[in-house]
Structures are given as structure tokens and as C-alpha cells.
Amino acid sequence: MRRVMTAALAAGLLGCAVTSAATQETFRLRIASGHPPVQTYVNLITTFFVPEVTKRVAERTKHKVQFVEGYGGSMVKVADTLEGVQSGIIDIGGYCFCFEPSNLPLHAFQVMLPFGTMSPVASVKLAREVYDQVPYLSKVLEDKYKQKLLGLIADNGYNLGTTFPWSTVADLKGQKIAGAGLNLKWLEYAGATPVQSSLPEAYTAMQTGVYNGWIMFASGWIQFKLYEIGKHYAETGFGAITWHGLTINTATFAKLPKEVQDILVEVGREYEAKTGTVNEENYPKQLDELRRLGVDVRKVPEQVREEWAKSLADWPRQKAKELDAQGLPATQVLELTLAAAEKHGHKWPVRYVVK
Asked: Quick one: DSSP state of residue 314?
């Protein structure tokens, strides 16, 4: 297991563990994310999830909940949050499944179908529909990683920000561009040189030339000040991807009274929906903000998107077969996702055939 905290920090926080309802009416919950509060989903944890759970538990039960919050890597790093929740070092964690390609390979299923819906609202709705139809997606978190999924988390639409201008897919050949997890494949098929990275290190890495661009949503380009280095932001429309989750340690959850459990689940679902609506509302404002900050924001022509999508046309089927061979319901999940996206009005530039 990867090391998620220093021994001193772990020792200091373990005293905040949930105690029995029979002896204590105040429950302390450690909630954390490796990403900082400037990131939309973390901001919603601290401004919506935490205060709403606190308020509703106080109003509707005889109990109280106190949250101990730690973001931006103060308790767990971005790639260590799953293990942090699993081990009980933290009680609740928000994290990207993109950093768990070995543990949760199928949970990045929307990434396997690039150029999907750019609506975060539609993305999180269709993801929930797939989760509801494929119990494995939630069950593996509980059975193998000892955590219950409280809410899915939508990102804003993924585009491509760079330090250089480009017009065609061929212009990207050989360029070092960053991504996270499976979306590196989008770059590989375009002929770019993919570089695994994470947002907390993005500014320095771009500044020093480790890479010259990022597959990134507009909010990330603003919140992490990447606009200071990357003056070109192309609306490529890779899709709004739901591949983060908010989870709670199952042992922690089991110790809570039923009425507190119900509130956590209730607020978790409301939080899930908000990650869609808030991201969707903010997207056009963020593009305007980038323009104000001196970034060249342009929409990629449909023929360029189609060319890129064609280069990836066989990849979803190949990925599904690879995961099917591992005993995962990948073909089922991708077919359900294609159908759900179309039900919500999406038209693919290239209609993927999974089987």
C-alpha cells in the first residue's frame, strides 16, 4: 500500500475516529482530498457537503457531526486517497479514479469513449444510470476497498490547453502534453508524447518545459493559473467526464446511527448533482475569464474533431476486450454508456462499435 501520511499526522488524527452512538452523540469525521479547495469538486465538499451534513444532523437527530477537513495534500495525496479511506486514516475522501488504473480500471469508462457529451449535468446523470445498472461499479469499492460511494463527481468538459498554437492533429505530433490516467491514450493516438501528471504540479512542470500542454477543463486552467504560461486554449470537446467519487470508509459508516447514515447518503446525492450543475453554469464564464486573461480561446473545427475521433475509433473495443478478459463487465458498461449518452441527446463525431 502506498504511504498516505506521515506517521505523526496519522497518529494525531486517529483520535478523531467515530465513537459508538451508545456513548457519544458527537461524531468526528476526517474528510480530505489531495486536490485543493480551488478545484470545483473540493470547493463543493467544503462549502456544501460539510455544512449541509453538519446542519441536517443537528436539526434532524439528537447527534452532532464535526468534520476535520484536510485538502491539498495535507492529509492524503491525490494518488493515495483511495488507500487513505480504505485504511481508515481518513473517513471520507474525494478523489479521481484516474489515479487508480490498476485498482479501478473500469471506473474510467467515460474516458474510453472520447468526444462524449460536454455537459457535466448529462455526464453525471448518465454515469449514475450506468452505476445503477451495473452493481459491480459500487460493490467493488465496498468489497475490495472497504468504502461506500456517497456521490459521483462530474468534471467540466475536457479541452486542450497549450503553450503553442495548433490547427490540425498533425501539429501535435511529438509535442509533450500532460494528462491523467487513461486520457493519455487520446494524446497517443494523435501522435503527441503523453506525460502523466497531476494538477498540483502542473504550473511548475509547464513553466520548466516538462510538457507544453494539458488535457484540461477550463476551470483547471484558471484555478491553477496555467493561463500565465499556456496562452492557447482549444475547445476540442473531449467530453465532460464523471470519474471522481466521494467515498466513506465502511467501518466508519457502520458505526454511525441510521439517521446519520441516511443524511450522509442524501447529501451525497445532492452533492453529486451539484458537481454537474455548478460546472455547467461556470463553463461559459470560465471561457470568458480566460479571454480576459489574454488567452486565445478558439473552437476546434468539427472536421478536426472528427479526424481525431477516427484515430480512436477502434480503441473502445480494444479496451473493452482487455478488461473483459480480466473478468470485468467492460463491454456491457461501454454499450450502456453509449446508449445513455444518446438518450441524453449526444451525437458522437464517430459512433464507436464496442462489439
From this structure: T
Tens-place pLDDT, residues 267-293? 999 999 999 999 999 999 999 999 999
CA–CA gap between residue 116 and residue 239 (Å, rounded): 4
At 252, list the grid cell: 466508519
Integer Cα distance of 307 and 186 in angstroms: 12
Q: Residue 252: name the closest of 92, 140, 144, 95 by CA.
A: 92
**Which grid coordinates are listed for 286?**
470560465
DSSP string, 47-80: IIIHHHHHHHHHHHSS-EEEEEEE-TTSSS-TTS
- What whole-number distance in Å separates Cα of residue 190 and Cα of residue 168? 10
C-alpha cell recorded at residue 54: 453538519
Which residue type, as a one-letter code, is found at position 261?
A: Q
Q: Record the cell numbers describing residue 27, joined without a space.
A: 461524531
**Coil, helix or strand for 176?**
strand
CA atoms within 13 A of residue 187's CA, in its CB half-sphere: 28
Within 13 Å and on the Cβ side, how many CA atoms surround 308?
Answer: 30
**Whole-number Å distance between alpha carbons of 84 and 317:** 33
Residue 308 neighbours by CB under 8 Å, 6+ apart: 115, 169, 186, 189, 190, 236
Decide: helix, strand or coil at residue 154: strand
Range list of β-strands (E), 71-223:
92-96, 147-162, 176-179, 193-196, 213-217
Instruction: Locate 280 and state its grid cell.
Output: 455547467
Single pTM value for the model: 0.89
Comparing C-alpha atoms, which of 186, 202, 203 is closest to residue 194?
186
Other CB atoms within 10 Å distance of the CB of residue 37: 17
Structural contact between residues 246 and 94, judged by C-beta atoms closer than 8 angstroms: yes
For 116-171, write each residue's pLDDT tens digit. 999 999 999 999 999 999 999 999 999 999 999 999 999 999 999 999 999 999 99
